[in-house]
């Protein structure tokens, strides 16, 4: 490649990257904001004055405002309104997460306390980030919710699209490998184990505005490595989906669905 071609290529890269940078929040700033918010809701350090909480929250609000202003046009989205509505909903988010943590503690015999769930369970952290990202997505904020959810994905192995609808409470046990698609609907009091996928039965860009992922009604348990596909697939309330099940059709309420594969074990006698 000759020098003038290199120069033209570099200029092209710069212009493309400049446009992309201007339309994207800083990943580092986004994660720092999320970490500060999580620390505000569930602090690891003792805070001995109420004023510290107030100062933390005010700083967090300013940081979110700066992030949004860095890549959004105020003519396209009312940033002040987004800030107000998000922080007005923060108590509801917190109360939902306390219920999520309580369900995890009650359903997992290995959990020693609700606090242990909050400070150490990857499934709980993934749900916490989802509830924050989901609220921002509901308020019309682009890109940032997905950055937050992908941060949680990388940290926990749980991939929840911020547009999914997940009721309260929910319990993700172990977490690793869980995938929840964008148009999934999950009811209340649902338990999902590691490796479960709620996915689309087909992948096509023309289906972007169509419900592509399953609906899971209230009080359902889905055990490890099960795959449930399709926007018309409904798992009826109070059902149990056993491990390693592959489903592309609905099941009625109070159903029990299990994989019929039989494991055969032979023991050889000593020669």
Automatic annotation (TrEMBL):
Key word Acyltransferase present: yes
* Keywords associated with the record: Acyltransferase, Amino-acid biosynthesis, Transferase
Instruction: Name any one GO molecular function.
Output: acyltransferase activity
Question: Does the entry feature the keyword Amino-acid biosynthesis, yes or no?
Answer: yes
Domain of life assignment: Bacteria
Q: Which GO terms describe its biological process?
A: amino acid biosynthetic process
Protein name, entry field: Serine acetyltransferase
Give the organism the record lists: Mucilaginibacter xinganensis
């Amino acid at each position: 490649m000759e020098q003038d071609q290199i120069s033209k290529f570099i200029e092209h890269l710069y212009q493309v990257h400049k446009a992309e940078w201007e339309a994207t929040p800083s990943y580092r700033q986004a994660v720092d904001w999320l970490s500060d918010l999580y620390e505000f809701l569930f602090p690891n350090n003792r805070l001995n004055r109420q004023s510290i909480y107030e100062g933390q929250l005010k700083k967090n609000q300013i940081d979110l405002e700066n992030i949004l202003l860095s890549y959004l046009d105020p003519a396209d989205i009312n940033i002040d309104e987004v800030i107000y509505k998000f922080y007005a909903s923060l108590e509801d988010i917190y109360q939902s997460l306390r219920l999520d943590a309580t369900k995890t503690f009650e359903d997992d015999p290995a959990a020693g306390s609700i606090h242990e769930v909050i400070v150490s369970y990857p499934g709980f952290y993934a749900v916490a980030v989802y509830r924050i990202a989901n609220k921002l997505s509901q308020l019309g904020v682009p890109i940032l919710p997905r950055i937050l959810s992908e941060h949680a994905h990388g940290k926990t192995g749980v991939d929840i699209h911020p547009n999914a609808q997940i009721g309260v409470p929910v319990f993700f046990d172990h977490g690793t490998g869980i995938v929840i698609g964008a148009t999934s609907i999950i009811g209340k009091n649902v338990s999902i184990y590691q490796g479960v996928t709620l996915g689309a039965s087909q992948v096509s860009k023309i289906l972007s505005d169509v419900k592509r992922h399953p609906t899971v009604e209230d009080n359902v348990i889905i055990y490890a490595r099960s795959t449930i596909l399709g926007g018309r697939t409904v798992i009826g309330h109070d059902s149990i989906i056993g491990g390693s099940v592959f489903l592309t059709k609905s099941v009625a309420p109070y159903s029990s669905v299990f994989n019929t594969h039989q494991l055969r074990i032979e023991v050889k006698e000593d020669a």
